[in-house]
Amino acid sequence: MLQLENMRSWEKIVMVVKRHWIVFFILWVYFFLAFIASVSLYIILWFNILTHMLNILFWMIFSLFLYIEWLNHELDMYVVSDNRIIWIEQISFLNRVVSECNLWQVQEVNSKTSWLFANILNYWTLSIQTAWNKTTLQMDFCPDSMQAARKILNIVDHYRDSHLSVKTEEK
Fold first, then answer.
1. Fewest CB within a 10 Å sphere: which of 21, 113, 136, 167?
2. 136 pairs with which residues across the strands?
3. What is the pTM of this model?
4. Number of other CB atoms surrounding residue 64 within 10 Å
5. Can you tell me the distance from the alpha carbon of 9 to that of 104, in angstroms, rounded to the nearest whole number?
6. Which of these, 24, 146, 129, lies nearest to 87 by C-alpha position?
7. Digit-coded pLDDT (tens) for 145-166
8. Where do the domains of the chain lie, and which CATH numbers do they carry?
């Protein structure tokens, strides 16, 4: 179970939205293309010490690139609790942005799709528009974002209804 450092004692995580598996498939395609380039380097330049050194250097740099790309996609997530939404976005290596908003600040939740593969594999763009400084929290490659958008809107509506009923009872 995911537990964040600044969670309040009464706060519960309702849902966590991470990226679709297609981004990891794309990383495998990069790996396969690099493997073909590496083998073709051996075929073109034959087997000598310079070819080995270039190939080792290439794989060291490329494996670092793959790790950073994997990390950037793996750590991006929405964490929706019963009180707020936290958007964690890994921009690049050692560069992270964490945004959060209370559920009463959510104005609209949208999902947008494009391309044929996005429709077939069911990954879309999920964006949450907030009232605070006109901030938009946007996640590309979100799995089943239409259902996630509906679930987030249901959580927001439940939050507003419960707090509205408390305020009317106080009056």
1. 167
2. 129
3. 0.77
4. 11
5. 20
6. 129
7. 899 999 999 999 999 998 777 6
8. 15-171 (2.30.29.30)
